[in-house]
Amino acid sequence: MSTVAPTIDTQTQKSSNGKDGDVLVSVRGLKKHFPITSGIILQRTVGHVKAVDDVSFDVYRGETLGLVGESGCGKSTTGRTILQLYRPTAGSVQFEGQELSTMKGEELRKMRKRMQMIFQDPFASLNPRMSVGRIVSEPLRIHKTVPRNQMQEFVENLLERVGLNPYFINRYPHEFSGGQRQRIGIARALALNPSFIVADEPISALDVSIQAQVVNLLQELQEEMNLTYLFIAHDLSMVRHICNRVAVMYLGKIVELGPTDEVYDNPLHPYTQALLSAVPVPDPIVEKQRQRIILTGDVPSPANPPIGCNFNTRCPVALEPCFHEPDPPLIEHTPGHWAACHRVL
What we know:
By secondary structure, the protein is an alpha/beta fold. It is 30% helix and 23% strand. The strands form 2 sheets. Strands 6-7-8-3-9-10-12-11 form an 8-stranded mixed β-sheet, sandwiched between helices. The longest helix has 18 residues, at 208-225. Mean pLDDT is 88; it is low at 1-19.
């Protein structure tokens, strides 16, 4: 067994999607702390919100890594910090072997062509004053990847690829449904032919009847374009369906990481066990025999996390070391299955 640290080399690990372990994105010791200021005229920093606090994991080329956890645990901030939409407080983010956290200006702008994001809210992430054609073609104009005389044909083909009528090119976002708007967002993310996409809860704002269509579209595009996804979500049933591996996050830290079936069938961390106990099973006999784990209290403030393990204030099986010793390290217990808990050390 070995402990995850910013210097650890996990490129020899195999991903459960059948790939050869080719690491596309490597995150080590990632931190994003937002300052808390006081004062009206002369503002001073009086604390920090530790939104992401020492996170380490790899994303393998061609896989879908799910990132799950309660609202406010730092999932979206992690995704945005990886893409450098938020600059990290500390840590390393390597994409295709190149360090992103130290890149600036033109060098970083060129790297953005290879990394894109699908935002959670399709109603807020599209400019209402821009037509669909201008929204989807904006990345092409900025990076000058397609000649002007070919741009309309390119955009029409892209809209058709995501299941939209190419004649919609001159319409505006308010004329579309939620599912259609999300498809526009997906088309915009695909315009520059990226290799890595952060999908930040791409289906949570959609009707249930539309969610499956969008997920199926994402899977089809992954096969066609050899895409790699970081899939941030709350729906654990959907994560099991679409993801090769899953990382469970709590209060800014990864508490469990492993192949999806392994984590779902044999959860090691008490927080993972509580999350999975809330997932309904479509079998009345099994559902009746299941034991629900009800967590009491609220998630602690990331500005003032508990002493010891972050989960000790809500953990139903906490031990004495959980309240006094430092946060337990992320340990590999079976090949590819990692957990950070004093009970499973």
